[in-house]
Design goal:
Length: about 140
């Protein structure tokens, strides 16, 4: 009888395959802003996590979320309802948090229900900037 444990060998083989698949799965990552267009709200960003021996490639033209907010402003004894849209103002060097959508988002950016053109999942090509990390918020 050999000293090889077939269950252990199978576990290592399957674990290696799962690890390789997980390495291709992108969910969220911190990035540094390289450039930001205030008109289109698109940014070029540099991922900050180095998961392989190579430098991570920049993500180009990443959409940035804005916010629609409403609140009540009280001045003296009077209150005023306020509704406004807050557009992001990113600067080169800001550290942002980027999420990768479950599927291709290009066809949905107009606000319409649409099928993706590709079968890609959790791709960095479908990244969206969701906010600025605290290290870039200090004044």
């Amino acid at each position: 009888m050999s000293g090889v444990n077939p269950a252990g060998t199978l576990s290592r083989l399957l674990g290696g395959q799962g690890g390789q698949q997980a390495d291709r799965l992108n969910v969220a990552l911190p990035c540094k802003v390289v450039a930001f267009d205030e008109t289109t709200l698109l940014a070029d960003v540099q991922p900050l996590l180095k998961l392989t021996g190579d430098q991570p490639a920049q993500l180009l033209g990443v959409p940035t979320l804005g916010q629609k907010v409403s609140f009540t402003l009280q001045l003296g004894s009077s209150t005023y309802p306020v509704e406004t849209t807050m557009r992001p103002k990113l600067q080169r060097g800001d550290v942002v948090f980027v999420v990768c959508a479950d599927a291709e988002i290009k066809n949905t950016l107009s606000g319409q229900v649409a099928a993706p053109d590709t079968g890609r999942r959790h791709s960095r090509n479908d990244a969206v900037i969701v906010g600025v990390l605290p290290c870039s918020l200090s004044e």
